[in-house]
Design goal:
Low-confidence stretches: 6-23
Structural class: alpha+beta
Number of helices: 9
Number of strands: 18
Strand order of the largest sheet: 1-15-16-2-3-5-4
Shape: elongated
Length: 383
């Protein structure tokens, strides 16, 4: 079966990262080469990136900084193996995005999260919020602003211990029951089904036939994961399946935050590219305001405030309330609009930003056999 996948003899050591400038519609991209890929984008379209992040709390800072360094605003971010819990949802947001989460309630690991830019109108498909031993899934419908058509998007993580054929049957039933093929659609995530094994695995062949029968074709056709213990073991287990007629622009980011590479797809649909700014709220902590705050506290007649106050608890509360009153007045809340590309954690300095870019550039060189693996790992650990 010819799916346009990059086929290779498993007994031959071929460097699949050798050429990131080939003519295949699916390419490898570094931070620098993605700048060239962006020039191919049409005005209308949606940009989708999908990544097995293997703990949002451990890796989101570096991942978001990596995305920011590419100089592009991503409309939808799909994350798998987020390891998010209900008690920590408040820590799992990305500025400028709405979010939908599917998390395990009774065990560790797993999880799927969708992040959708704030200006995009969407609806959750509640019946596609599923978590069991076969599939972890989220579904949304995006309304095109200038068309009656819609885009349905499924974010999926397949637990590797589940039966592959049972997973395929379940996914096919979900696609049919929710009329996914009746509109533009994308099914993306970590499927843990290696597309490179199509000619030697009945389970893989069964899965691909099921997707083909529902008019889906793969946008990602090159390996997305490298075994850290065996650099020659490469698989296509991170998928983006589309049923949109126009050819997408797709790539795989050469990024080693986890052992999965982020995958990207730009689909040509009637959604105007929108560089709307993100509104942030902050306090004006200028030096002038800090001096004013200090002066007000020094000039305060504390004796008059604490007169007739008996208990130590009341004394503390009086102090806190007075300090807070001056804090609010001296450091007023302000708002401003900034590009989503500039959003970053405050501790990510320019030096760290440079180091993150260097780390991933060295990873690209390592994949091409031009850099020492041990030195690359030392730099990653230092970062």
């Amino acid at each position: 079966m010819n799916l346009g996948l990059e086929q290779r003899d498993p007994d031959i050591n071929i460097n699949i990262f050798q050429d990131e400038h080939d003519d295949d519609s699916c390419r490898y991209a570094s931070i620098d080469t993605f700048t060239e890929i962006q020039k191919e984008f049409s005005r209308n379209g949606l940009s989708i990136v999908c990544f097995n992040i293997r703990s949002f709390y451990s890796n989101s800072t570096e991942f978001l900084e990596y995305l920011s360094s590419t100089g592009h605003n991503y409309d939808i971010i799909i994350l798998t193996e987020t390891w998010i819990k209900e008690s920590t949802l408040v820590l799992s947001e990305i500025p400028g995005y709405f979010s939908v989460h599917n998390y395990r309630s009774n065990m560790i690991g797993g999880g799927v999260s969708l992040y959708i830019r704030e200006y995009i109108k969407f609806e959750c498909i509640d019946t596609l919020n599923i978590s069991n031993n076969l599939i972890e899934c989220l579904g949304i419908t995006i309304n095109y602003p200038s068309s009656d058509k819609k885009l349905k998007l499924l974010g999926i993580y397949r637990p590797p211990k589940g039966n592959k054929k049972d997973f395929t049957d379940l996914l096919q039933n979900l696609i049919t029951q929710h009329s996914i093929t009746g509109s533009d659609a994308i099914v993306a995530g970590d499927m843990n089904i290696d597309l490179l094994t199509v000619d030697r695995s009945d389970d893989t062949n069964y899965f691909i036939n099921a997707m083909n029968s529902n008019s889906f074709r793969p946008a990602i056709t090159k390996p997305t994961r490298t075994d850290k213990k065996n650099n020659d073991s490469k698989t296509i287990i991170d998928h983006m399946w589309i049923n949109i007629p126009e050819q997408p622009i797709s790539c795989i980011f050469l990024c080693n935050i986890t052992d999965h590479c982020p995958i990207f797809c730009r689909i040509n649909v009637p959604y105007a590219d929108n560089d709307k700014l993100v509104k942030i709220t902050f306090r004006d902590m200028s030096v002038r305001n800090k001096i004013l705050f200090q002066q007000k506290l020094q000039e305060k007649n504390w004796d008059s405030i604490l007169i007739n106050v008996r208990s130590s608890n009341d004394v503390i509360m009086k102090h806190l309330n007075t300090v807070n009153e001056h804090y609010q007045s001296c450091f007023p809340l302000k708002t401003k609009m900034i590009s989503a590309n500039r959003l970053s954690k405050p501790w990510v300095t320019s030096g760290l930003q440079k180091s993150i870019k260097t780390k991933h550039e060295l990873y690209r060189l390592k994949c091409n056999g031009n850099y020492d693996n041990e030195h690359c790992n030392r730099l990653a650990n230092l970062l």
